[in-house]
Target: DUF2141 domain-containing protein
Amino acid sequence: MIAPLLLWAAAMSLPSSPDLGKAEGQCRADEHGPSFLVTVNGIKDRKGHLKLELYPANDDDFLADDNILVAAGKVFRRVEITVPPAGPIRLCIRAPGPGVYALSLLHDRDANRKFALSVDGIGFSGNPKLHMGKPSASEASARVLAGPTPIAITLNYRRSLFSFGPLER
Model:
């Protein structure tokens, strides 16, 4: 029962090229093109980094290795920030054009560039309920319009051995 979750966590912790997708994902000042304006909800604390990634909205490419996606000429974008000490948290990530994409958001609390199931938080566009494995691309997808498109992503943290969900406030 726990095997799919452990496989997913292992895949999330694979080393990636830290700069892949950043130039393409970084919004410009006063962005006017297709982009997601993401409001982060449910953050556990103000430690570490946030990493927002944009993928094709299909199960084969969703959460795939960034090196493989870029080498194949597929869509991949990344934005990383240090968690701000206070206030609302908003990130902007550019999309290559209007359409449907899948987004993941990692709260890397110890800033080690890896997903640790027992420490870090994870969220997806569409805010799917998390089970023992990763959500499908369709559950974690959102449509971006020709201009900036606001969405909200709620972070989920491990609550027990078999439970993963948003923090209770």
Notes: Residues 39 and 152 are 5 Å apart (CA to CA). The two ends are 29 Å apart (CA to CA).
